Amino acid sequence: MKSSFKNALLSAVFTVATVGWNVSAHADGEKYVLIEHSPDSETFWNTVKNGASLAAKEVGAEVTFRNPPTGDLADMVRIIQQTTAEAPSGIIVTIPDADLVGGPIADAVAKGIPVVTMNTGTAEQSKKLGALLHVGQPEFDAGEGAGERAKAAGIKSFLCVNSLFPNVAGEQRCQGFAKGLGVELGKQMIDSGTDAAEIANRVKAYLSANPDTGAVLALGPMTALPTIQALKDNGMAGQIFFATFDLNPDISKAIKDGVINFAIDQQPFLQGYLPVITLTNYLRYGVVPANSVLSGPGFVTKDNIKLVESLAGQYR
Amino acid sequence: MTNVQTNEAPRPTLPKDERVKELHRLHKALIRPELGAICGTIAVFVFFMILAGGTQMFALEGVMNWGTVSAQFVVLAVGVCLLMIAGEFDLSLGSMVGFSGMIFALLVMKLGIPVWGGILLTMMLCASLGMINGWLVIRTGLPSFIVTLAFLFILRGATIWSAITFNRQPVVSGVGEVAAGDPIAWLFGGEAFTGLFQWLGQQGVIATFTKGTRMGQPVVSGIPMLMVWAIVFVLVGQWVLTRTRFGNWIFAAGGDPEAARYVGVPVARVKILMFMVAALCAAFLGIEQVIEFGSAASDRGIMKEFEAIICVVIGGALLTGGYGSVVGAALGAIIFGVVQQGLFFTNVESSLFRVFLGSILLAAVLANTYVRRLITGEK
User: Fold this and answer.
1) What is the pTM of this model?
2) Given CB atoms, is A35 within the 8 Å cutoff of chain B?
3) In chain A, whose CA is at the least distance from the CA of B52?
4) A11–B62 CB contact, under 8 Å
């Protein structure tokens, strides 16, 4: 069967070539490329993409999304270099690791492509690379803000469920929370892995070894959902102080049920929407804001959940 | 060829034949494919008894904790073990876990199909995907490594795409509420013997919660169905492999497909069936996770295919096929689960568990190689 062999080969090549790339509806006007660092399936990025797509539709531009399918930052560097070679009208990019992706981003700027950075990274890093501005939530400060809220509730110790282990952002969030509480981070941060059952059982294991833990901090929906399950299993749901980064429908339900005290919302919608608008205004009218934008932290609690709820996971 | 069963009546004792090497009975009992895994299991348990002796790790609660994680690996490892003994790989199983869960959730949430129907349809779809995998491998003669690598991407992509297209986000939630009243959903996400555990809690045999939302309830409310299934899978898998003619065919198809064909073993059928079994194991796990956690996420099951292969290899199977044991694979899965979770009971730096895992893998493979040489006499 020659032909079926050929088909198999073609489909394999095609699959590998197109993985992690998707193009929004075609429109006339500028072509932007948004490059982010997370693996294919991270739910958070859906909201960013919805924001960016909406902005692109409003201004009549086109935005393409690219990311390393496995979340490998070395792959991300290649994607940035490749995108630079294509010379799009503008690049929107995250800075998960300035040492690694800084060079390629600076090269894109040097080539005359306007760049807006967003999500991970800092306004200082963004400026140094020559980007127009940065739209994001400073990780450490967000963690610290959350830690201060926990301290006000009388919390003295916490568990940080970190599924972003090799990623600096995760540690900064935990470090910030520790500083807000006024304690050392130490072994309060665990490498949770990414499998739901493993996360849930590791949280249970840690809490059974350290039953006096006062609070749990989840770094996103990936860890928050199994953590909710774990706390329901060991009877700590609603008893232990529970904060999480980011939102999705399950998290907003848990906030309503009183299992989660608050979610730290970095408003990803703005991280997608504002860069597209900024680039368009810069290209068409030559105007650009003079400072970077802090898209977060906003805190979503039982009191303000109403507005958020219907949009969670899509625009919030 | 090992483990070939003969169903002949016991013959009268023959005079001793100098060509047959006499083996001590103990020696015979010891040299089995799972010997390495048995030693590994004992070693790991002893290690953690010393390291985590004072913690909850070996209390009932702790056993359920690492037991659940191990059960996940067992379910996958049984399918992967049979497939690997048949001489093939399936790298798409991790993606299949995510894919099956997503399809199941979409069927239930978006099309309003009852949970039992969703389970059935998803299983059928995944079995046919396994069949396609197997058929491609057989027809093209490509290594299964390559064909299933393609499916790793295809299925992961299809999972994310279908979630975004039909649900406008990569997660489908709310399955838990729908599954709550279903006649067979509890078989997947529920717990067995809850009444017994309730009673044991009242009798004071099991500790009860002293505070929190579940005050007065036993700390372990039942045996997770996943564990029950894992045991069933192992028993059935081991029985098929070592006690049936089909089991011999699996060994033959993986050991030497050419020779097996000459003696009339339907090698293609055996291999394709094993691909289907492996795909069904993955689909089973995917559906179980969705019912247990109440939502399907498109990132479920990442890396699971390699973890399953690791369990099987720790369990003494050969990467080249034709040799292995389901019980060994299950022990490998238990080792994996204990190591994965054990360090979280102790106050050891948790990022070390990967280092630990790698070392155990290496030690297990070395031990298994030694045992296999004893058995087969290869140098």
Assistant:
1) 0.80
2) no
3) A209
4) no
CB-based contact A226:A197 (threshold 8 Å): yes
Q: Is residue B105 very low, low, confident or very high in pLDDT (cuts 50, 70, 90)?
A: very high
Assess B61–A contact: CB distance below 8 Å, yes or no: yes
CATH T-level fold of A3-136+267-289: Rossmann fold (3.40.50)
Residues 6+ apart with CB under 8 A from B259: B252
**What single-letter amino acid sits at B156?**
R
Residue B297 with chain A: CB contacts under 8 Å: 41, 43, 196, 221-222, 225
State the DSSP H helix or E strand holding residue B144, giving kind and residue range, or none if neither. Answer: helix B144-167
From the list A15, A42, A248, the residue facing B299 with the nearest CB is A42
Average pLDDT over residues A107-121: 94
Antiparallel, parallel or unpaired: β A62-66 and A21-23: antiparallel
The tokens describing A154, both together, are 């009388």
Give the model confidence (pLDDT) of B74-97 as tens digits: 999 999 999 999 999 999 999 999
- Identical fold, A3-136+267-289 and A139-265: yes
Q: Which of B51, B56, B65 to mutate to test the interface with A (most CBs of A within 10 A)?
A: B65
Q: Which of residues 160-199 of B touch A (CB under 8 A)?
A: 160, 164, 168-171, 173-174
Among 3.40.718.10, 1.10.260.40, 3.40.50.2300, 3.20.20.150, what is the CATH number of A139-265?
Answer: 3.40.50.2300
Mutate to test the interface with B, among A3, A194, A208, A242 (most CBs of B within 10 A): A208
Tens digits of residue pLDDT in B288-303: 999 988 889 888 898 8
Starting from the edge strand earliest in sequence, which strands make up the sheet with A215-218, in order?
Answer: A189-191, A158-162, A215-218, A241-245, A262-265, A298-300
Find, in chain A, the residue whose alpha carbon is nearest to that of B160: A41
What are the extents of the domains in chain A?
Answer: 3-136+267-289, 139-265
Nearest to A41 among B61, B170, B303 (CB): B170
CA distance A10 to A27: 30
